[in-house]
Amino acid sequence: MKTNERIEESLEKLWEQLEENSGGNMLSEILDPEQTASLETLEEKGLIEKFQGGIRFTEAGREEARLAIRRHRLSERLFHDIIETNQDDMEEAACQFEHVVKKEIEEEICRLLGHPETCPHGKPIPPGACCQKARLSGDKFVASLASLKRGEKGVIAYIKAGDSKKLQKLMAMGILPGNPITLTHAFPSFAFTVGYSQYAVDKDMAEAIYVKRAERAMP
Predict the structure, then answer these.
(1) Which CATH class is domain 142-213?
(2) Residue 89, H or E segment
(3) Architecture of domain 1-138
């Protein structure tokens, strides 16, 4: 593991210990030296400081740790929700992927996932600037077809189908990433157009189709 990756792994572990667990700041409880950067290295880089037999983040260290844990948990969400990787492979893939994610890509992943608030394990994902903008606008860049309003248009982002039969049925309709889609009705079923064809599905199927929103709904 590269030095900067070891530092990020250390910061993530410290974040869980210091920010998410109460009273766990004693030096003897913190880090596994075989897998993480030493406390001395973190202290030399101005990321932590020692006090009263324990440690705490510096202001810069806390922000670095917050960003590291955000990248890791967004990566977990990506592999769990979109790629549908199993639990063991998800964790390994996320640990590798998080270290190469740049800020711009991180925000695009967050938007693609709909600004998730928790990772697959239920732990909170620290919000980014993109999350705040989405909350202020009351909108999500990517949302399920079932959550759109009549007249909304977009491009199919991905399909989250729990079984192969559902996936095959949707693909037979032309529900493929990159295809334009418009929701025409949401009751009694979800009716939509893909290209020049029109289809109708139930709520369960509509919730499996995720769309990059393009235009607001008709009034």
Answers:
(1) mainly beta
(2) helix 87-97
(3) Orthogonal Bundle (1.10)
